[in-house]
Protein: TetR/AcrR family transcriptional regulator
Amino acid sequence: ARTCRPPRWRTCCGATPPSIVKITEAAGVALGTFYLYFPGKLELFTEVVIDLNRQLRMAMSEGSKGATTRLEAERGGFRAYFDFIARNPAVYPIIREAWFVAPDALHLHYERIQAGYTEALADAVEEGEIAPVDPEVAAWALMGIGEMVGMRYQSWPDPDRTTAQIPDDVFEACMTIITNALTPRKDTHE
Structure:
């Protein structure tokens, strides 16, 4: 299967492609072949969301690979998340559009990220590596930090910044917040 290329799609057609003709032109395939793979635009859009989710989760997993602590994994995962967003700026508009166009795909997108995240945080809580937080609530909160900070510093136009990369000081501020939230206090595991 071909990997979806949302940035090219967005450049050509906008967040939601206006016609099957534009979609097939952008993809470089014959108009009639579209329906061999998708019943319509909604199904294609859903596949784009699912593919972006797969790519994003893979990038974050790769980013945290080799970490020896949960906090190292957070640093690597967040860096990979922000790098992925810098390389794929259409992620935010596509995910926002899914709220209205394909809410089931949006729900699946977040649930897939949250499920693995919750499991990893639960393991870290169990081992006393991080504070005794509710792993699911912590996963959603951390996801919110990444998404909102990325949107603000990577997606919104800023004439003083010429790159889509997250500024180092912003990244370090995020890591300070996360470290302070997750570091166990001396009296919490005694």
Observations:
- Residues 41-64 form the longest helix (24 residues).
